[in-house]
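Lesson 9: reading folded outputs for more than one chain in a single document. The general rule is that every protein is listed as its sequence immediately followed by its C-alpha cells, and records are never interleaved. Here is the first one.
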Amino acid sequence: MEVRVLGGLDGLVRDSSAVGRAACLAHRRGEESSALLDRKMRCLDRQRDAAAMAIAVLQRTTGVNLAQAVDVVVGLSPPAWCADSTRVLEDVEPPATIALDRQVRELRARISQAAALDRAGRSEEAAVVARAAIDDADRTAYPPVVAEAELELGRILISQNQGVAAAEILRKACNAALASGAQPRLAVEAGARLIYVEGAHAPDLDRLQRDLLYLEPMSRALAHDRFARPLLFNNVAEVYRIAGRPDEARHYLELARDALGGAPSDIELTIIDRNLAMLTPDPTSRMELTRSAWIETRDALGDHHLRSLQAKAQYALFQTDVGKAHELLADLCVAYHRFHAPLLDAQLECELVRAYVASESGALDDAERAYAWIVDATALSSSAEHAVHRELATGELALLHHQLERAVPAFRAVIDAPRPQRALVGAAASAPGRAGARTRGDGTARDARRLPAPRHRGDRVCGDRADLPSHHLPAPPRPGAGTARVASTISGTRCERSSLMGYANGMGEDTLGKRSSRDNRRMPQPSGPHPEPSFCAQTEPGDCNGMICGGGNSPFTNIFPINGMSADGAGACNRDGIRLEPHSLQGPKCTEADSDLMLDDTRTKLVGKKHGRITCAGDQLDGASFTVRAGRQSLPLTISQVRQFDDDSPYHQHHEGYQIKNGNAQLCDLNAAREALYTLGFKKVPDPEPKPLRPYGYHLGDNDDLVIAMPGPAFDVNTAEPIEHPDPAHFFNLACVGDALAKASFYKLTGDARDTMAALRMITANYCGKRMTVRGMHIEWESYPPPLKSKVLEAEWDRDGRALCIEKPRLMDLRVNSPSEIFRPQELEPGLQPHGCRPVPDEAWQMRRGVLGPSSQGRVQRLRPMLSGQPVAGPVQVVH
C-alpha cells in the first residue's frame, strides 16, 4: 500500500510537470493564447493545492484509517484534465480582484481538504471543514466557489447516509451552479446526486423525468466528459430500480456504460458495470461485467483493498463454474485474514459463503475447514452476533458428520436468539431438513440447495427472499410481465459501502451453474396450549340489530405487503425476511431526522421517535418517508396522507389513517402491493388473470386507500394463522381499511390471537384453506348460542377457526349484472370453486341438507351447522 500511495503521488507530480511544460511550449510556439495558458496554469495550481491537502491528511492518518490512504490519492483529479483546452475554457471566469482571487484559492484548498478527509474515512471532520468553507464562501459573493463547497458537503453527507440533509445541500449546489451560468459540469453532477438521494427515499418518476429534461441535454453538451453524464445515467437507473422498473434501469445503465467511452475515468464509476451485471439476464455477460469492474478496481486500488475484494466477491458469485467460484472465494478469504485481520465480521462472512460454495462444488473437506475456522474464531467472543455464527457453523459441522442430534440444538440456538441475526436464521431453520442430503466421500448425494448468505452492514439484515415467490398476496387481476428479479445495487454515490456478502444473496438462474432453490419451509414455531377464547362477537344492545352486526366482507386478510413491522425500532425481520429499517423515518415536518417509526402509547397510531422522544406524530407524518428492506433489496415508502375518519361499523370508532405509497402507487392496491414485493426481490409467479368480480353497485370505500396501525401479532395472509413469536407485541401491523384485519378491529371481533384468526377466516370466507368470496359481499354475524329466528346460517367457525360445515358458500348470492340476477356459480373462476373442501360435497353448488330460511327474501339459504345433533359452540357464525 505504501508503494501504491507514494507511487501515486510521484505520478501526479510527474504528470503535472509534463502538462505545465507542454502548455508553456505550446504558448511559446504561438499555438495557444496567453489566456489559455493562464487557464491551464490556474488548473494546475488548483490541483497542486489539492495534492498538498491530501498529503497533509495522509500525514495525520492513523492506523484506524490507514487502509484508506490509497483512496486519498486515487481520488485526486488527474493533471491530464488541465491539458484539455476545451475543458479549461469551460471553467468559470477568475475572480475580478487579486484579493478575491487569493480568498477563492484558499477556499478551494479547504474544499479539497474536506474531500481528502472524507476519502480517508474521517467524514465527521470533513463535514466540519466543508460547512465552514460554505460559510466563508457565502461572504465572498463569488457564486462558483459557493457551489463547489456545497457540492462537496453533499458528497460527504451521502457517504454518511444523511439523505435528507444531502438533498437539501445538493439542491442548493445545483441551483448555484445553474445561476453562475458557467458551471454546467458541476450542475450535472449535483443534479445527478440529487436524483439519487431523492429517489432512494421515495422514487418519483414524474419528478425524475422533469429533472432529466434539463440535465440530460446539459450533460450531452459537456466536452470530453466521462464522469458527470455516466454518473447521471447510473443514478437515474438506480431510481428506476428502486421503483421496480428493471427494464428502464438496465437501459440507463447501458447508456451510462456507453457514455464512459471505455474504462472509467474515476474509480467511483466502476459501479456502473457492477450495477449492470445485477440486471443482465445472460450469465456470461454478467460474469464479464463483474470481472471488468474487479480488474479496474484492483488496478486502481490494489489487490487487497476492501473495494477490490468486494468487487472480486461479486465476480466470484456470478461465476457459472462452481469450481472457479470456490477457488476465487478461497483466495478472497485468505486476503481478508492476511490484510484485514481486524475485520472479523467480514472474515466470518467470507468463510461462511466459502463453506456454502464449497458444499455446492462437492469440496466438503474445505467446507468443514471453513466452518471449523468460524467456530474457533468466535470461541472467545461475547458478541451475540458472533455467537449466532458459531452456533450455525457448529450445526453445519454436525450435519457434515451426520450428527443430527448435535445439529438440531445448534440450529435451535440460532432461531431462538433474542434478536435473531440477519439471514442466518433462515439457514438454521432449513438446515435440519438437509440432514442426510450430503455425504462425504463419493459426493453422490450432496445438498443441491443454496442457503442465504449473511451480510455485514453494521446492523442486522434480513435474509434475501429473491427466489421465494410472493406467495402471500393473491393473484393480480391482470397479467404480470414475467420474472423480474432485481438484485440491489450501489447507488454510484461518492462512497460505495457495499460489504463482501452484498451479492451473495443476489444470485438467480445460472449463477454457480444452477438455480437457487432455498428451502421454503417456515421456521419451527413454539408450541403450547392455546388460551380459552375470550370473545363471541359480543355487541352492546342497540348498536346493531339486537345481537347481530353486519358489514362488507373482504377476500383478503390484508393487502398491505409488509406483514408485520418491528414495534420497537430494533429492525427485527418478520417471517418473510422483511424488516422496517431503524432510523429511516425522515419527514419535512419531523423535528429530527433519522427517527424510528413505531406505535404510540395507545398502540393505535404511528409516531416517529428518537432517543425516546416523539419527533413527529399525526399530521406531522404527512410527507414523511421510511424504508423497508429484504436482504440487499430496499424499498422506500412515503406516508403521502394522514387522514382522520370514522369507520362504517355500528360503533363509528374514530381512527387515524395513513396512505402509504411506493412512488405514485398506494399500497392498498393489489397490483401496487405485489410490485412492492417484486422490488424487494420476491419472484414473480405466473398467475391466472381473471377479471375481478364485483357485486352490482359496489365501489371502494372512501377510506379504502388508507391503513390503520394495529398491534401484533401478525397473521399469515393465506391461512390467517397468527405468526408465533416469543414476544407477540414485537410486531405491529399496517392494515388496509378495506381488508379483513382492519374490519375485524372495526367490528370489535379481535380478541386473543385465536379469536382474531376465527374472525379473519369468517370475513374472508376461508372455509377450507381457500378464500371463497369477492369484495362487496354483505354478511352479518352473531355470537353463539342465541337462537336464530328469521336468520339462517352460512357456516359456523369454532374456536380453532374451522368452518365446521357449510351448505352453500356466500358467493351463491353474488349479483354482478343486475340487483336481481344471481351470477351462475359454475362460471366462477377455479380459485373461487369449492373443489377440495370438506364437508362440501362434490356437487358443492347443490343444497344438501339443513334447516333453511325462506328464499323469497332474496337471501341465500344457508345450513345451520350441527354436530352429533347438537349445535357446536364457537365464537362466530355467519347469518344472512
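And here is the second record, again sequence then C-alpha cells.
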Amino acid sequence: MKNLSLFIIGMVLLSSCTKSVVKPTSVTLNSTGSVKRTLSGPGTNYYVNASTGSDSNTGLSTSVPLKTIQAALNKTTEGAAATINVVAGTYSERITFPHSGLSSAAPIAVTNYSGGLVYIDGTSTNGGTNANMVTIASKSHVRLNGIIIQNDIMAYANGISVIGSGTDVEINDCTIHNVGWTTSMTAVPTSTNNAHALFVEGTGTTGALSYSNVYIGYNTIYSCATGYSEAMTMTGNVNNFLIEHNVVHDITNIGIDMSGYYSYTGVPDSVNYARGGNVNYNTVYNCVSKVATSGGIYVDGGSYINIQGNTCYGNGAGMTVGCENNNYTATEINVRDNFIYNNVTAGIIYGSNQANSKVTYSTLSGNTFYDNYSQGGYGGEVECQNTDHLNVFDNVIQSRSNVVVIALSGYTSTNLTMDYDDYYTLSGSSGTITFDWGGINSSGYYSFATFQAAGYEANGLYNIPGFTTASLPTPNLHLTSTSVCINRGLPGYTAASGEFDIDGQARVQNSRVDIGADETAY
C-alpha cells in the first residue's frame, strides 16, 4: 500500500462495516516444506556472461554467451520454454520479461548459472524513467531464481515488480537489499516517499484476470528504506499465493503485507484484495517505522489467509491484522503456530482501526507470545480493535508486564471467544493480571479469576509456560518436558489441512494438542 501504514493516533473510531468480500473458489498452492524449489532448465538454454559475452552472439553455449540478461530475454519466444543461465558477475541493467512461458513445467526462467553470485545492480541506472530492477508485467509461467538485486535508490523504487494479470510466477532464492526512496535508513518519510523490495499488484478487473499462483520462497530481503510502503507486498487482484521460508529484516516499515481496497489499483471492490494465500515459516525482524506502528507481517484488507509457523521479533508490532480502508471487511485470517516475541509494541494487533470496517470470522490459535511491548509503558501482548467472531485459543501469552490482552477503547470487539490459553505475567500472580476490556464493557478485569467469572478462559491457565530458555534477546520458546502446556490445549482439536507446528512437525501428538506454537512428543 502507498498510504501511511498502521494505527495512527487521532483516526476516527467506531461502528461496523457495510461491504463484504467474495471468497475465492480454491487455494491450490501448498508449502514445499523445507526444500527449496529448483529449476529443471527446459526448452532453449541461453547463457549470459557480463565479462566475456557480446549481445551479437547467439548465447546458445558458454563459449558464445550474451553480455546482458535483457538480450537473452529478448531471444525468448511467447509460449515457449527457455532458461537464461547467468554467469556470476555484476549486471548493471534493469530487466523486463517480454514473454510468457508455456506452462508450469515449461517456464521462462532467469537463474544463476552453477550457483554463482549474480548481481543486478541499479547504481548506474538510478534516476531514469524505470524504477523497477525486474519487471514482470502480465506474464505467466516465469521464474526468477538465485539472483541478487541491489542498489535501486529512487522514487517509488521496486526491486521486483509483478503487475497486471497472469498466473504461475515464482521468485525463489533471491536476495534483495538496498532498495529505497533514499539511502538513509534513519530518514523520516512523508506519504510521497515509497519503495518496495518486492511488489505484486493485480490490476485485472475480474476474478478470471487475477494474478494467481504466485510463489515467493527462500528469499532474503534486508536494509530497504521503504518509506510509507513495505518490503514485500501483495495487493489488488491477487489470488492464490504462497510466501514461505523468506527472511525479511531491517526494513523502515512493514515487512510482509497483504492488502486490499486501495483505489490506485483501479480494480473493482469485488476483487481488489489479496486473498487465498499462505504465509508460512518466514523470519521477520527489525521492521520498524519512524511514523507508524509497523507489523512484521500485516494483513490489511486481505482475506482467506493463513499465517503459520513464522518467527517475528524486534518489529514495531509482531503482527497486525486489520483493514485500513473504511467500509470494508477483512475475513478469515488465521494466525496460528507462530513465535512472536520482543517486539516494540504488541505481539499482535487484531482488528480494523476504521470506523466502519472490521476483521471477521478469524482465529488466533497455537501461538507463543513472549515479552513484547519492549518500549515499556502500558500495552498488551494481544490488542483488539474492530473485530467480530474472533476465536482465541491454545496460545501461550507471557507478558513482560501485568497487562496481557486489551480490547482497545473506542473500538468494538463482538463475539470474542477465548479459552485454553496459558498466561503468565511479571508479578507471577494471577491476582494481578490485567485484561483491559474498554472496547467491550468500558472496564477491565484485574485478576484471572474475575476474567473467568465474566465468561472467558473457563479452561485457561495461569502458569509459567516452561520454555527451554526464556532469556532475551534470543529465547528458545520450545517447551520443556515438564511444561504445563503439554497436552493442555483444546480437547479434540483437529489440525487444519496443511497445519503444522513451528518446526513443521505434526500439530497434534499424543492425541491432544499442546498450548503454544511448539508441539511436543511428550
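What the second record shows: The radius of gyration is 23 Å.
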